[in-house]
Write a structure and sequence with these properties.
CATH superfamily: Jelly Rolls
CATH class: Mainly Beta
Helix content: under 10%
CATH architecture: Sandwich
Number of strands: 12
Distance between the termini: 51 Å
Strand order of the largest sheet: 3-11-6-9
Strand content: 35-45%
Radius of gyration: 16 Å
Length: 152
């Protein structure tokens, strides 16, 4: 790339592999990747096979948006899978089944996960948009962990 006065604003090839999923690395100071200079962090994951990504609940002190979109750029509504995502903990725990293009807002303090990408018929995209410059998570220890193995 030719040197530019705007070089500090450009992040070439910010790829990393995490959770056994190849995708665009999470942009945040805490991860040791590029810092975007704003209260914003982004994670991009191309889901190509089933994976139980996070097995226990946690929470954050910032807003988070979990975005599920189809992998076909000509029809992003063509969602090819099923994802089990838990919101809440213990008596308030509820399993959300994602089986179409969807955005889920996780407000500060709301425990969420496990997240299990249970069915993958064709690749789809999972984005994590976080309104923070420093990713941090707080572990939540459920009193009734067996609830996460039950059906909805």
């Amino acid at each position: 790339m030719v040197s530019s006065r705007y070089e500090s604003l450009i992040y070439p090839e910010p790829m990393q592999k995490r959770w056994f999923v190849e995708g665009l690395g999470r942009f945040s100071e805490a991860e040791g990747t590029q810092y975007l200079g704003a209260e914003f962090a982004l994670g991009y994951n191309l889901i190509t096979e089933p994976i139980n990504m996070l097995k226990s609940p946690h929470k954050h002190d910032f807003h988070q948006y979990l975005i599920f979109i189809g992998g076909n750029p000509m029809n992003m509504r063509d969602f090819g899978g099923e994802v089990d995502l838990w919101l809440g903990v213990d008596e308030e725990a509820e399993k959300i089944i994602v089986n179409k293009t969807m955005i889920i807002h996780v407000p500060p303090g709301l425990p969420h996960c496990p997240i299990n990408f249970r069915v993958v018929n064709k690749p789809f995209i999972f984005l994590e948009c976080m309104l923070t410059s420093k990713y941090d998570q707080i572990e939540v220890i459920p009193k009734k962990p067996e609830i996460y193995s039950k059906k909805r």
